[in-house]
Amino acid sequence: MTTFEPEILNVAISCLEDSVDLTPNDNPDKYEQLNYLGVALQTRFEHLGGLDDLESSIVILRQAVDLTPDDHPAKPGHLNNLGSALKTRFDRFGSIDDLESAIVVDRQAVNLTSDCHPDKPACLDCLGNTLQTRFTRLDSVDDLESSIVIHRQAVDLTPDGHPDRPMYLINLGSALKTRFDRLGGLDDLQSAIVVEHQAVSLTPDGHRIKPLCLNNLGNALETRFNRLGGLDDLESAIVVKRQAVDLTPDGHPDKLMRLTNLGNSLWTRFKHLGGLSDLEAAIIAHRQAVDLAPDGHPHKPAYLNNLGNALDTRTERLGSIDDLEEAIVVKRQAVNLTSDGHPDKPKRLNDLGNSLQIRFGRLGDLDDLESAIMVSRQAVEFTPDGHPDKPGRLTNLGNSLQIRFRRLGGLDDIESAIRVKRSAVDLTPDGDPQKPGLLNNLGKAFGARFIHTRNPEDSNFAYNAFTLAADQVTGPPSVRLDAVECCIYMRIAQIQHGHATHQDLMNDFDRAFSLIPQVAWLGTSISQRYKALSTFGGVVNHAISIAIDTGALSRAVEWIEEGRSVVWGQLLQLRSPVDDLRSQYPDLADQLQSLSHDLEASGHIQDSANIIDLNELLHSGSEKAVRDSVSIRIKLAQDYQDLLRHIREQDGFKNFLLPKTLAELIPPQRTDGPVVIINVHQFYDHGDALVVYGSAEPIIHVPLPKLTFKFAEDIRLCFAQSLKKAGVRMREAVEDRVVDSSPQDRGAILYDLERSADSQIADALKILWLSIVQPILERIEDKFVDSTITDIPHITWCPTGPLAFLPIHAAGMYGSQGTPSDGIKLFDVVVSSYTPSLSALLRPPHMFASGWSSMKALVVSQPETLGMSKLPGVLSEVAQIKKHLGDQVKHLDDKDATVEAVLDAMNEDHCQVIHLACHGLQNIEDPTKSAFALHDGHLTLSHLMTSSVRKAELAFLSACQTSTGDEKLPEEVIHLAAGMLAMGFKSVVGTMWSIGDKDAPIIADEVYRQLKEDHVSGDGRLKTAYALHKAVKVLREKVGESNIVSWAPYVHFGI
Q1: Average pLDDT over residues 855-865
Q2: Distance CA 957, CA 861 (A)
Q3: Exposure string (b/e) for 236-250, b if CB count within 10 Å is 16 or more?
């Protein structure tokens, strides 16, 4: 591709100027020299922006036209060049006279050229472009129709193989896309993509118009994505737009537009998938386009507006008021720089209104809301009927009016809001990705009026709008999920007024659960899925409560499985054995396993939001790796879903890898004791427990009248504060922040130890006993009749919501001030385990043919970690393990315990037990970065999620907070212990808070002693829960029952 060389052009212009000056007007070469000089001056203007060059170009090209006889063969070309210069001045200053003059001279050029002349297509192409430009300025559809007809003529008259055919195809595609934008005919968009594809394929690499071909194709593909929602189109758009940017040299006049087009596509992908790196990259691209565009540049308002939209979006994501203030400033500039009557004026007014509305929501200044309504009205009024953006602008006006109604209570505002939002819905065809959001907004307006008037008709209107929004097949899943949640709340209101039944509400919850795979789509990263699910936990708890109320206990259990631990469930699904499928369709089984492996590996790739330079953005290997991984992950997810659909079409596989029924989740009779699910929801004045002994036995419902959501949340907060007082927990630790640690605590924080902390902890455990555990045990007491002292019953607890953060296993009646007491405790009568889901318990037991002596173990120890306290007890702990396992241990210590070495060792076939004795870190901002601190870095939950151990039995996590989850995502059970279960370990020993360095060796010694003496149950399972139960008893006797903080953190997960 040729590059602009100003020195050479300057010399050429100087020579042409001398030649023109020396040539008399009656010389037949004079007009040709003038034409060359005019074109050269226009070229220099386009690259350097000197207005004198543009003005001189037009004057000189007029002279060339005037001196050229009408019958001269060069006359049409000279006319076209003059038209091009006039159109350029129109683009720069917006004078309609220049555009009209350009159309006049372009028509003269067409009329002077015969159809058989080789220049006829070029003349037609120029006229078509100027007519399309006048359409964008004056919105005359006749101009657009004429433009398309003329562009088609240009293409039809150009033979295959002609070097200008790709350009004519580009312009025809642009006109077709413009007509789609204006009138919404999908055939126009499909035709535009076809011709833009042809232009790309006909243009050789290195040709000067290749970037233009790619850019226009990308715009058309993104438009189709916006219309139909196919992610393939968006991904393809980003790929070709990146190519367009990369192939456009710095300094080229079109570089800025291509940068901002790429930024728009990245912003669109962020809006759909939530990858922060896309948003950061979009802002960088838009900001550079703004900075490089000189004042007066015709596209500067567009660049400013695009930057403002991206900054708005980052405000919504990260909350920075500075971003919002800057967004309003640049959007005001964009509006002020856009003349009235310009086709983009309504869009820029609309976008400014959105920013003002956001600032009102943040700061509450009523002037912002009034200004938002004013500019939003202008945006609607300036947008012609039939324009595809009219519905969105109507809805934005409606939102501002609805907000003012909420603030001031004027009924006129809510009536007007409903009217404009209904118009927006009526103007939008089914299948449009905007439709769910428009319907959802309309439903909220009806809901707001219903709250004010209590008119049942409004509740019906609202519910119907929400239902239609949720059932749309296109549009962002997050919007449709929000619509389902609104459906649920509106249905509750209808039930209260006798207009619906609880069965109706159950159907609404079914609709919500059906959206989970789309909300937490496998094509997004694991951290993005967790963010998308952050608001769904309450829906799950609510659904369970409703199912229990209606007596649908089996459905309640199935919903728990479907709605909790969604991401873990996806990982388990990707690792599901496919023996049945392989026996009948081995090729499909191989495809599924290969795709599952690749998709799982891609899920842990995190978004990089630290791109600080455009060159790094476009060319750095790290960012390229991130963006490529995103595209690969999306493609893998789409292929995986397509393959699952194909498998389910085969005989006998209709329900393959679909949510399990109760009979599939649990055996007819559990040999390992019951699973007890405890649920609580904020709308209910009581909690519930479901005791599941097996799919062949009735589920036992235990009402918990003393348990409410606020009660549970208060206990959780009280317990957290008490632990903090006791100096054993720092919930605020995030990412790589190293906390001050006691020499005797693995990750503990030093606080002044107060006696009241023990008392508060004892009181909290007493409350847990009285409100939760005691009623459950009393209800199932008859099931324990055959139990003996040497083999006490076993319960697996599955608490939900805030209960997931409480040590139910330690509940009991303790003495005042934390002193010992003869009161009953749960550990006196039951061995406790926990599970994040029922699926986590569906593990086939591994039979040890050679007994304990065949057990292979990996022990990882870090007695000293840079920046953290020493753990001298680790050496004693390792010695205890080796005492029981001997040569069966592979030990990685200190410098040998690197992240790579540990992962490699974990993945070896013979590794059945792993014991990690080190610091543990809980990351609250991004739970997937919770980690074990090793010699060279952090072994994170993301690392663990991508590993799999074939013969995994036991993971012993002798570190701090390894089973502490994230309060924002209680139903996802995001902690290191759950990560080990997902890896394939059947049993995990973890900790709920920091543990004492001197206590850990005692627990390790006793656990491995117990397993060595009585390691396997009758069905081949390790008896880890019983081993830990006895080990904690030994520790409790050493430190004292009242020292709850020391012995209670140890917990068992799994089977």
Answers
A1: 86
A2: 11
A3: bbbbbbbbbbebbee
